[in-house]
Design goal:
By secondary structure, the chain is an alpha/beta fold. Helix content is 42%, strand content 19%. It is built from seven helices and seven strands, in the order E-H-E-H-H-E-H-E-E-E-H-H-E-H. The strands form two sheets. Strands 2-1-3-6-7 form a five-stranded parallel beta sheet, sandwiched between helices.
């Protein structure tokens, strides 16, 4: 079964030498080789203003490039998010992207009673994080807190579920062979669209 996939590159640095960019490219290559349709969103290429209040979040409209990102998410069946762990969390530009794009009326709708309606329900997701610390330390000592926040409180809140995850740790000391294995894994995940 072919799927429509959005690949969200959450690294704010446009340097193509970043491991996260190579991982996203490998995923895209695997997905396209298997016949999946992909669209890419790169936050480094977008002007993403920070929201300053609830009224702006609920009643404002995102700038045109971010409205195009909304269109891509509406089109998608599977959303893959790549980002580096910075100070234990996603980079601020990626968080600002989610705040701008996942607004009420598009990603969810308030109800008079109960939880909001999840307007992106039916989509699945995958989160890929790179980090300097060992992956096991992030998962077990820090309980993967920012990953859990993204999966449950952001993506899950708007209906993107289930969300798988892949964490690559100790990237600064990784050998060329290890990086190649990671790229092969991403290519295989892209081919399976999972």
């Amino acid at each position: 079964m072919y799927r429509r996939i959005v690949i969200l590159q959450g690294h704010p640095d446009p340097d193509q030498a970043r491991l996260g960019r190579a991982l996203a490219d490998a995923y895209a290559y695997g997905a396209m080789s298997a016949g999946h349709d992909i669209r890419r969103i790169d936050i480094a290429a977008l002007d993403i203003p920070f929201l300053r209040g609830q009224d702006e979040f609920e009643n404002g409209t995102p700038p045109p490039p971010l409205a195009e990102a909304q269109e891509a998410l509406a089109w998608a069946e599977h959303v893959v998010v790549f980002f580096p762990l910075w100070l234990g969390d996603m980079p601020a530009r990626l968080k600002a992207f989610f705040e701008q794009v996942l607004r009420p009326g598009f990603a969810f709708a308030y109800r008079a009673k109960g939880f909001p309606e999840k307007r992106l329900a039916g989509r699945t997701g995958h989160v890929v994080i790179t980090m300097g610390m060992p992956a096991f330390a992030y998962r077990w000592f820090y309980c993967g807190h920012s990953l859990r926040l993204l999966k449950r409180n952001i993506l899950g809140f708007v209906g993107i579920a289930p969300v798988a995850d892949t964490i690559y740790g100790s990237i600064a000391g990784a050998s060329a062979e290890q990086r190649e294995l990671w790229l092969e894994e991403m290519q295989a995940l892209g081919a399976r669209a999972g």
